[in-house]
TrEMBL record:
It comes from Microbulbifer salipaludis. S-adenosyl-L-methionine binds at residues 117-121, 140, 168, 183. This is Release factor glutamine methyltransferase. CDD domains: AdoMet_MTases. Substrate binds at residues 183-186. The keyword Acyltransferase does not apply. Keywords: Methyltransferase, S-adenosyl-L-methionine, Transferase. GO terms for biological process: methylation. One of its GO terms (molecular function) is peptide chain release factor N(5)-glutamine methyltransferase activity. Methylates the class 1 translation termination release factors RF1/PrfA and RF2/PrfB on the glutamine residue of the universally conserved GGQ motif.
């Protein structure tokens, strides 16, 4: 029987992964129900025949390109464990910048917040964890994504978040918000990256937008004006080459204090403006 240590030496099998060793650690932790610290405390622990067969199957699926988050059914975001599935995007670390920006610019203890295209609910739930007195609505147009976000909300116990099905603002009537945030589809349909990595296993509806990836951002920015309170903040995530275009779009629509913030790699990622 192979040990934990021996299985962690199989990184070469995951040559297409950007983080093969980490992939092995995460998959082993998931399989054994243990922490990463445990793996290195008990490296000589042998896997049973059944566990080894399950681990081999997980590795084969990872070699085929399936995201680790889909293999484990979970992804951590803002230190929150979120359930994930193929109905929506896997939360990315760079989206945490959007959370950071909102928390920085909106220090008030009470606020009404809207998360558009919420997917797993990651942004809404992260904000809820930091601002328990904020009232947050998370919306998505896909029923499966709405169900997933509600599952995560229930699991984490955040009572200050409401999850709704809505095509952007369609179900919100005349409600207004102090903050509107969104990580909308922003990839151009011919982008070659759609055929690479984890995005191959994620729904195109959550990734692709017309107008060279700007159609949904334009729709949000146009319609948000009727739903933002005076001085309200709109903040959207976008592609790293879209900052200039999004700033111009915001400015043309009359937003003030328009600026773009970088992601963790220093690339333009979050554009914001105020009504």
């Amino acid at each position: 029987m192979a040990t934990v240590k021996e299985n962690l030496l199989r990184a070469a099998e995951l040559s297409e992964s950007d983080s093969p060793r980490l992939d092995l650690e995460v998959l082993l932790c998931h399989l054994l129900g243990k922490s990463r610290a445990w793996l290195y405390t008990w490296p000589e622990h042998p896997l049973s025949d059944a566990q080894q067969a399950q681990f081999n199957a997980l590795i084969e699926r990872r070699i085929a390109g399936e995201p680790v988050a889909h293999l484990t059914g979970t992804r951590e975001f803002w230190s929150l464990p979120l359930n994930v599935n193929r109905s929506t995007l896997i939360p990315r670390p760079d989206t945490e910048v959007l959370v950071e920006v909102v928390l920085e610019l909106c220090p008030q203890s009470a606020a009404n917040v809207l998360d558009l295209g919420s997917g797993t609910g990651a942004i809404a739930l992260a904000l809820a964890s930091e601002r328990p007195h904020w009232q947050i609505i998370a919306v998505d147009t896909m029923p499966a994504a709405v169900a997933l976000a509600e599952e995560n909300r229930t699991q984490l116990g955040f009572r200050n978040v409401e999850v709704l099905r809505s095509d952007w603002f369609s179900a919100l009537s005349a409600r207004t918000f102090d903050v509107i945030v969104s990580n909308p589809p922003y990839i151009e349909s011919r982008d070659p990256h759609l055929r690479e990595g984890d995005v191959r296993f994620e729904p195109l509806t959550a990734l692709v937008a017309e107008e060279q990836g700007l159609a949904d951002i334009r729709k949000i920015a146009e319609d948000a004006r009727a739903h933002l309170a005076e001085h309200g903040l709109l903040a959207v995530e976008h592609g790293w080459e879209q900052g200039k275009a999004v700033r111009a779009l915001f400015a043309a629509l009359g937003y003030r204090e328009v600026e773009t913030r970088p992601d963790y790699a220093g690339r333009e990622r979050i554009t914001l403006g105020r009504r």
